[in-house]
Amino acid sequence: MDFKNKKVLVIGCAKSGEAAAKLLLARGADITITDSACIAHKQALQDMGIAVFDGGHPDFLLDGEWDFIVKNPGIPYHNPFIKKFVEKHTKILTEVEIAYACAPRFHYGAITGTNGKTTITSILYELLQENGRALAAGNIGCPLSEQALIFGEEEKDIALELSNFQLLGIDTFRPEVSVVCNLAPDHLDYMDSVEAYYKSKMRIFKNQHKDDWFLRNVDDPLVMKYAKDIPSTVIDFSLIRQDVDLYRKDGGIYLHEQLLFHQNDLKIVGDHNVANAMVAACMAYKLGVSIPSIQKRIKAFQAVEHRLEYIGERNGVTFYNDSKATNTGAVVTALQSFEKNIILLAGGHDKGIPFDELKEFDDRIKCCIAFGETRHKFQPIFSHVNICETMKEAFDRAVGLAAPGDVVVLSPACSSYDQFKNYEERGRIFKAYVLEYLQQN
């Protein structure tokens, strides 16, 4: 795609917006950026030749003749400013689509789903490094446009984590291998309905060709319901069944008859992580990583930060940071990893998702210590609930309640925006609490 002299409005100057603006500018586009907040480095952007309007979106931008808009994926389409462009049928893209057009020699393993995306992406990136041309990008933290600006003329293998927000703004993006790892209700504060959320995930395979692969989780009824009319080769996978393409048998993970790796070589806990590693290994194989290399890298992989991350142990009590569990499906995964004696720290910003599916784990919960905006909503869910204002209070109560054999897990089931900037900050602060406690005499 030729961007020279294209007139582009970038809405939202977070990392992805700025990266897209710089990439488009390098390709000769005429860029305007607007943000509802103040942009700290406004002058630097203006010095590059970008028109910048911050502290709000001026109405006159609505009258501009834009070739297309690049929208920050976190801004919903029903935002009043965005909605006016939707009503005018202005093309709205995501920075992923821009990067895809600017890096024709990138090869993509694209991962979406509700839970496990970051772990799969991290394992895939680890495996792809074996071929010496790996990059990680997308929702994992680094915008794809940033990688395209630096490496756009090179051949690279990309482990790409995609949110449904990003998938809503793709047009031609085509991964060589993709997966919707699972589905559960999420982002109901953003999407019109849970069905719209599920359907948005399926956009990941819409441009694939027959020789591309789509990995389909046959253990997930919602994936099976919504993953229809797939244009690529379907690789069905399961932890339960063996009559599929990718499966577990006698402690080994197999693609057809080929052993990919031994389950015991994984250092991360839980069946969900076996599934994550299974998917990543299959994707790496499709992207050209050899079986011996996959096996070597699987043995070396460590837990992803903030995703059921082991922090330490004291007096027989173990501590885990699962701050990335921002919905109930992710918390279910955490609770399935421990049989009993769980002290669960949960709560945060209310995304409108009910917590009812957690009730079935009540017998595993020694106590739920709930904090933040949603703290009172856990009282009908578990038999034993303590209510706190802050995570620090919740942690202190957890330490006071804990006995040898207990597991203390921060797995909030909510986003962090009531008390923290993001789930990473929440997780880092929780780890600091734990490490300080572990070091006490």
TrEMBL record:
GO terms for cellular component: cytoplasm. GO terms for molecular function: ATP binding; UDP-N-acetylmuramoylalanine-D-glutamate ligase activity. Residues 306-414 form the Mur ligase C-terminal domain. It is found in: Cytoplasm. SUPFAM superfamilies: MurCD N-terminal domain (SSF51984), MurD-like peptide ligases, catalytic domain (SSF53623), MurD-like peptide ligases, peptide-binding domain (SSF53244). Residues 111-284 form the Mur ligase central domain. Coiled coil: none annotated. Pathway: Cell wall biogenesis; peptidoglycan biosynthesis. One of its GO terms (biological process) is peptidoglycan biosynthetic process. It is an enzyme of class 6 (ligase). ATP binds at residues 113-119. It holds the Pfam family Mur_ligase_M. It catalyses: UDP-N-acetyl-alpha-D-muramoyl-L-alanine + D-glutamate + ATP = UDP-N-acetyl-alpha-D-muramoyl-L-alanyl-D-glutamate + ADP + phosphate + H(+). The keyword Cell cycle applies. Keywords: ATP-binding, Cell cycle, Cell division, Cell shape, Cell wall biogenesis/degradation, Cytoplasm, Ligase, Nucleotide-binding, Peptidoglycan synthesis. Its EC number is 6.3.2.9. The keyword Cell cycle applies. It comes from the Bacteria. Cell wall formation. Catalyzes the addition of glutamate to the nucleotide precursor UDP-N-acetylmuramoyl-L-alanine (UMA). Belongs to the MurCDEF family. PANTHER family: UDP-N-ACETYLMURAMOYLALANINE--D-GLUTAMATE LIGASE (PTHR43692:SF1). This is UDP-N-acetylmuramoylalanine--D-glutamate ligase. The gene is murD.
